[in-house]
Amino acid sequence: MQVALRAEQLVKTYGSGDSQVNAVDNVSVDLYQGELVALVGPSGSGKTTLLAMLAGLLRPTSGAIMIEDQDLTTMRERDRAAFRKLHIGFAFQANNLVPYLTALENVELMLRLSGQRTPAGRERARELLVRLGLEERIHGLPRQLSGGQQQRVAIARSLISQPTLVLADEPTASLDSERAFQVVQTFAQLVHEQNRAGILVTHDLRLVEYVDRVIQMLDGRIERILEAQEDLSCLANPERCGRIPMGTLGFSGDDCPCSEPEPAA
Ligand code: ADP
Ligand code: MG
Description:
The chain is of the alpha/beta class. The chain is about 30% helix and about 25% strand.
C-alpha cells in the first residue's frame, strides 16, 4: 500500500505561559492511498486542529507533513495554497459554500481553481452530486438547501478535483442518522474507488462500520489506533462492548458478545 500522507511529530501549541494548550501533542501517523480513517475522541482532544494542519490551513508549531514527497510545513504560503488546490480536498463543519452559486456551480468552482474545468470534469461534478442524493437540488442555491444538503455539496466539492487527501470534519453533524449512514457509505465508496486517502472526524461510532481504521485521540495525542475488523465492530456497538475502554468517548459497557474482555493491565 502506498503512503499518501505522513505526519511526523506534529505539535500545535496555543497561547503561552499558564494558558498554554498543546492542542496537538506529538502526533505521528501514516495514511495510505485507498483507505478511509475515522478520527474520534472527545471534544477538545485536538481533532479539528490536527485536520486543519493536515489540510495545510494551519501551520504546526513543529513537525512535518509529507504529501507527494513534499513537506507542507516548510512551503511558502503561496506554494502551499497552490499545492492545496491540487492535492487536498476538505469539507469542514462550516461548509463555506458560495451563497450566490448553485450546488453545481459551487462544485465546479473547485474544478476551475484546480485548473480542471473541462467537460469531463463538469460531468463528474454532476455525477458526484447525483451519487450524494442531490439530483433534484443541483441548481439550488445554498439558502434553498437544508443544512444536510449543503454538507453533501461540500463533500462533493472536497472530492471533485481528485485530491490525494480528502478531509471531512463531522460532515454528518446535521444529518439524521439514516442520511448520515448513506453519506458516509458513499464517501467511503468514493475514497476506495478513486484511491484517495480520507480522514473523517465523527462522533458517531456506528459510522466506523464503513472505515478501514479508527484513530482515537485524547488530550492532543493518539490514544490508540484500531484496525482489526472485530475491534471496529466492537466500536460500532460500544454499549455492548467491554474490550475497548469507552470512558473517554462517553460510553461504558461490560459484556462484549464479540470476543473476550481485554485482560486487565
Ligand atoms: P476537537 O476538534 O477534538 O474538539 P480542537 O482541535 O478544536 O478539538 O481543540 C483542541 C484544544 O485546543 C482545545 O483545548 C481547544 O480549546 C484548543 N484550541 C483550539 N483552537 C484554538 C485556538 N484557535 N486558540 C486557542 N486554543 C484553541
Ligand atoms: Mg472539532
